[in-house]
Amino acid sequence: RLLLLTVLLAQHCADAATSIQPHIVTIILDDWGWANWGYHDRLVNNQQLQEEVQTPVMDALAQDGIVLDRLYVHNVCSPSRSAFVTGRNHRHVNLINGPSTLYDPSLPLLGTWGVPAQMTGIAEQLGSAGYATQHVGKWHLGYASRADDSNTLLLPPATARGYDHFFGYIGGGNDHWTYKISKPSNGCCGRASVDLRDDGAPAADNKPAHACGVASQDGCLFEDALFERQVTGAINDHADLNTTQQLFLTWAPHAVHVPLQPIAAQEARFDFIDFPLRRKYAAVVNDIDRRIGRVVSTLKRRGLWDTTLLVVISDNGGPSLFDGGANNYPLRGEKGFNTEGGVRSNAFMAGGFVPQAQRGSVADGLMGIEDFYATFCGVGGVVTLGGAKAAAAGLPPVDSLNMWPYLSGAVEASPRDLVVVSDGHQPQAVIDRLGYKLILGETSSKVFQQIEPVQSSESRKQVRSSGKKAHNRRNFECSACHARRTQD
């Protein structure tokens, strides 16, 4: 009896622990290359990469947390971020990666491109469970969509989708020092305009001096320094409330998106790298690593870390062409391509909410970026996934799966069997849990490399022997998901 009572008590304590709602802090890095993370460089034992890539904070956090080894995203920014916010696969919400000024008044449900307001976002979901919600940094999900068939737009876009407060830029990228949109054609009236907003208004109090720029950094504030200040302020303000309310904070730094404009002193630390773009990229990666470290220190100092679930991911692979400077070795390809280097994301979880038994583990189960939606709802106490508004508007339902039972160790396998990657015309590839990929389409540049299935050599023999059967099944399922997309 005593043994039974002990077991039941232990189970009750475990259940009670998992019933606690965590603070959820998600950091979505921009264009972060697979090999631009020291954790991965040590796995391949590449000495040059280990010297150039310095990410000690994220390395340590991952080693004391859970590495998400098979998280798949879209190959460009906005579709991935749209999937994260809505819990839909990108083909069901947004495949456009264009400027925020795109607008079509003939679209009654959308109006502006991006995430329709009829899709209940993750912040709105968690807000319904009592969370305080904040977004700092890059948005790139379009302006607010129409809530109905009227001509009224919901502004600002982030608060229209459930965030209590937004501070950042609306578009896909701006200048690190002037905060202006990089391309004048994307600005107002053909001019390069400042893209920095505090909720619905321009962030006038943070307007940089006119002389600020890469060549004149004195007295100026690097944009990611500004975002770090906002994130730290949000954490301190929440802690000052001394409330039982939990915090959902999305931090979307500028790093490591072009233009690569590091702080001069930071770049000088990497002057041993001859190639300028690689040197600048390494400097910006190390810079954001340090900033993450300081934010984690703030969470610990303010007593929030023990109940925090920290998630760090990239929205797509790193770019090496043009002005990119990233490295995705040993994965093939880069941002903009459906090869592994374009769609397999650096990712890990950390924080005191991660179960002790799972710390230091690698989760090699299949996962899509849309799965954070149901996962966060699961740990955050959201009873029902929102979909009524979307259904009433004829929009696709949520695709997200709750990964927490798998990630927490309650079950052994990921619930996801397939990840679909599409460019909007048809699913270009289907990836399954065994490592198989079915590739469709006529464009040879949009294909995946075959990675080794995550099994022992004996298991691989069994997988190969069942390959034909798996191919036939995936072909049927891929055709079915394409049919659903076209019906949507």
UniProtKB/TrEMBL annotation:
Taxonomic path: Eukaryota, Sar, Stramenopiles, Ochrophyta, PX clade
Region (Disordered) residue ranges read 451-475
| One GO MF term | metal ion binding
Stretch forming the signal peptide: 1-16
| Domain called Sulfatase N-terminal: residue spans | 22-381
**Keyword annotations from UniProtKB, A to Z:** Calcium, Glycoprotein, Hydrolase, Metal-binding, Signal
SUPFAM superfamilies listed in its UniProt record: Alkaline phosphatase-like
The lineage's top-level taxon is Eukaryota
Family membership, please give it: Belongs to the sulfatase family.
Query: What protein name is recorded for this chain?
Result: Arylsulfatase B-like protein
Compositionally biased intervals (Basic residues):
462-473
Q: Which residues form a coiled coil?
A: none
Family annotation (PANTHER family): ARYLSULFATASE (PTHR10342), ARYLSULFATASE B (PTHR10342:SF274)
Source organism: Tribonema minus
